Automatic annotation (TrEMBL):
Coiled coil: none
Organism: Frankia canadensis
GO MF annotation list: 2 iron, 2 sulfur cluster binding; dioxygenase activity; metal ion binding
UniProt cross-references to InterPro entries, sorted A to Z: 2Fe-2S_ferredoxin-like_sf (IPR036010), 2Fe-2S_ferredoxin-type (IPR001041), 2Fe2S_fd_BS (IPR006058), Beta-grasp_dom_sf (IPR012675), FAD-bd_FR_type (IPR017927), FNR_nucleotide-bd (IPR039261), MRET (IPR050415), Riboflavin_synthase-like_b-brl (IPR017938)
Cofactor: FAD
Start and end residues of each FAD-binding FR-type domain: 1-96
CDD domains (alphabetical): fer2 (cd00207), PDR_like (cd06185)
A Pfam family the protein falls into: Fer2
Broadest EC class assigned to this enzyme: oxidoreductase
SUPFAM superfamilies given in the database record: 2Fe-2S ferredoxin-like (SSF54292), Ferredoxin reductase-like, C-terminal NADP-linked domain (SSF52343), Riboflavin synthase domain-like (SSF63380)
Protein name: Phenoxybenzoate dioxygenase subunit beta
Domain 2Fe-2S ferredoxin-type residue range list: 219-306
Annotated EC: 1.-.-.-
Length: 306
């Protein structure tokens, strides 16, 4: 790590560089990386710098006192010169073609939008960003956003209330793209408002799992691995990923919560019980892929392209 600075109250901005001085991989707006902590836990952070800067990757970390401990470790223990294990960029939140864009950012959920608005400005696109936070002192990157005074709406909750989600959704037409990243309450409001409006397309970014039905069935099922013909049994209450691990298969995975998409696997046959926080409703309905860390089977057997 090359540099760490505070961008707002409890928001630490970190510049990551290769310790050997080598160029980093280029990425697209919306991408994130995994950071592996010393205890082996993995956290995902959006890249919020310049995709054309091959010398460094920039992330921002919100200190969360009631979190799982990863953000506190980074705030308290990471300083310039600290070596951090990171993965390559992945993008579950890409910019898709559209006639206009409306961006809803809540708190640290602003980070994926910083490279997005640079790209949209470069294209000369029709876009607006609505950025909310508990208070202005906790809202990072305000100087950068000041470059776009006519398109960026800074709306601290303590002075403006909640973001005007329904009003923003009412601006959409069939070629509009609505992007949203932030706390679950904001994402839920965006989903409900968009469902009522039903035009354009909705794109959400989650770094915490979507709330699950605690009473959802966890029955046993079988998985046929198309590549080898092996049949793996998944016990009730056991994850498919754990069952494959126990069977000796080395399957890529990271978050184990259905948020990062590193374990996305093609489905050749069977009906999936999707429990991830990545796939859209249309992608789920297609039954083409699944996140094997959290999703299960509705049918007695699934056939996977493994």
């Amino acid at each position: 790590m090359d540099e760490a600075t505070l961008a707002a109250e409890d928001v630490l901005v970190i510049a990551l560089t290769d310790p050997r001085g080598e160029a980093l991989e280029r990425w697209e707006p919306g991408a994130h990386i995994d950071i592996r902590l010393p205890d082996g836990e993995i956290r995902q952070y959006s890249l919020c710098g310049d995709p054309d800067d091959l010398g460094s990757w920039r992330i921002a970390v919100l200190r969360e006192e009631n979190g799982r401990g990863g953000s506190r470790y980074i705030h308290e223990r990471v300083v310039a010169g600290t070596e951090i294990a990171v993965g390559q960029p992945r993008n579950n939140f890409p910019l898709v073609d559209g006639a206009s864009y409306r961006l809803l950012a809540g708190g640290i959920g602003l980070t994926p939008f910083l490279p997005m608005i640079r790209e949209l400005a470069r294209r000369g696109a029709d876009w607006r960003l609505y950025y909310g936070g508990r208070a202005r002192a906790r809202m990072a990157f305000l100087p950068e956003l000041a470059d776009h005074p006519d398109r960026v709406h800074i709306l601290p909750e303590d002075t403006h209330g909640l973001l005007p989600v329904a009003q923003v959704v009412d601006e959409l037409d069939t070629e509009s793209r609505l992007y949203c990243c932030g706390p679950e309450g904001l994402l839920d409001a965006a989903e409900k408002a968009f469902a009522a409006r039903g035009v354009g397309s909705l794109h959400l970014e989650r770094f915490r799992p979507r709330p699950q039905d605690e009473d959802a069935e966890q029955r046993a099922f079988e998985v046929l691995l198309a590549g080898s013909g092996r049949l793996v049994k998944v016990r009730a209450g056991q994850s498919l990923l754990d069952a494959l691990d126990r069977a000796g298969l080395d399957v890529p995975s990271s978050c184990r919560e259905g948020t990062c998409a590193s374990c996305e696997t093609p489905v050749l046959a069977g009906e999936v019980d999707h429990r991830d926080s990545v796939l859209t409703d249309d992608e789920r309905a297609s039954n083409a892929t699944m996140m094997i860390c959290v999703s299960r089977a509705r049918s007695e057997r699934l056939t996977l392209d493994l």
